[in-house]
Design brief:
alpha/beta; Aspartate Aminotransferase, domain 2; 7-stranded mixed beta sheet; 5-stranded mixed beta sheet; 37% helix; globular
């Protein structure tokens, strides 16, 4: 079946007890047992809940994976995926990754004896050069946050398999509608379901998807033991978001392309980062491994941080806020917001300059968003 059909139906059959077309919210912590010697499939919601099960089934199908596990946030999902590692192991990660992932690598894993090397996401060879005998995982975001750099998933999957290590892909920016890393050879896919999958800025969640039974067993055991699971109402909201994922992603992309093209021609703009533009250095790779270019646009202003501050002070429709992927358009300064906790030296190493502006393009009319940006860019 096609993507939009799967998003509406698979894992979300009518409730067998009532016929409810929408998966019910099983708002319960515990389930009655038949006897001392027998328990049903569901007995305690930390271990399993029917609403969460429906979400996990749907997510697995949309990523074309065998298994999915839902978590209470994107960083909880990241931490769960990293349970494939043990002290003494080593990670190779791209420079341009989400600040929350970087904090996990440096503040949580490093004290446990798991180390990380960072490299240029645009070069497969740079990943290979960082691999050590103790390397067990390559971790990438593609497109990356906030510079929208791409990593070649197929090439890195081949490299990982040659070296006997795993490849994990944070697919939050693309969503499974525009990119399915498991089909390109990745072992693990991670999502912040807070973003495009939920799609309405009203829920926090995360997910891990894999087709490897051993990886699934490890992460499933962690899910039950650590308990960072989403509540049934959160699962229901994400399920609701999945039903409209295709039409939302197409609209996000169309408006993002329109605005990226406009910004590239504006005299106040130094550079635009958007993989849909032919000027993007990895535009051809984007066309090869993605079916669309997404709804995120980052650009650099010529006059530095003061220009960013003036823009943000004048903008009207774009909401100054963290996060992304909702129906409303958001604007942020990566240096001052999403990556504020990093040192100036670390931001410079990652090429996260003070003149960057990141846009999450919502579902408003593209001409209204354009007018808002043009007005804010004046003077």
């Amino acid at each position: 079946m096609h993507f939009e059909t799967l998003a509406i139906h698979d894992g979300q059959a009518p409730d067998p007890h009532t016929g409810s077309v929408t998966v019910p919210v099983y708002q319960t912590s515990t389930f009655g047992r038949d006897s001392l010697d027998h328990r049903s499939e569901f007995f305690y919601s930390r271990i399993g809940n029917p609403t969460r099960q429906a979400l996990e089934a749907a997510l697995a199908l949309l990523e074309n994976g065998k298994y999915a596990l839902a978590f209470a946030s994107g960083v909880a999902a990241t931490m769960a995926a990293l349970q494939v590692l043990k002290p003494g192991d080593h990670i190779v990660a791209s420079n341009d990754i989400y600040g929350g992932s970087y904090r996990i690598f440096e503040q949580l894993l490093r004290p446990w004896g798991v180390t990380t090397s960072y490299t240029d996401s645009e070069s497969t060879e740079s990943y290979a050069a960082c691999i050590k005998p103790e390397t067990k995982l390559i971790w990438i975001e593609t497109p990356s946050n906030p510079l929208l750099q791409l990593s070649n998933i197929r090439a890195l999957a081949s490299l990982a398999k040659e070296r006997g290590i795993l490849l994990a892909v944070d697919n939050t920016f693309a969503s499974p509608y525009f990119q399915r890393p498991l089909e390109l050879g990745a072992d693990i896919v991670v999502h912040s379901t807070t973003k495009y999958l939920g799609g309405h800025s009203d829920v926090i969640g995360g997910a891990v998807v894999t087709s490897d039974t051993g990886i699934h067993t490890t992460i499933k055991n962690y899910q039950g033991a650590a308990g960072a699971v989403p509540g049934p109402w959160d699962c229901w909201l994400i399920l609701r978001g999945l039903k409209t994922l295709k039409i939302r992603m197409k609209e996000h992309e169309a408006s993002a392309m329109h605005l990226a093209t406009m910004l590239e021609q504006h005299p106040a703009v130094e550079r635009v980062f958007y993989p849909g533009l032919t000027s993007h250095p990895q535009h051809e790779l984007a066309k090869e491994q993605m079916s669309g270019f997404g709804g995120m646009v980052t650009f650099a202003l010529k006059d530095g941080l003061p220009a960013v501050e003036r823009l943000i002070a004048k903008i009207k429709l774009f909401v100054l806020a963290d996060s992304l992927g909702g129906v409303e358009s958001l604007i942020s300064s990566p240096a001052k917001m999403t990556l504020w906790a990093l040192s100036q030296a670390e931001r410079e190493r990652r090429k996260c300059t003070d003149n960057l502006v990141r846009l999450s393009i919502g579902l408003e009319n593209a001409e209204d968003l354009e007018a808002d940006l043009l007005n804010a860019l004046e003077g």
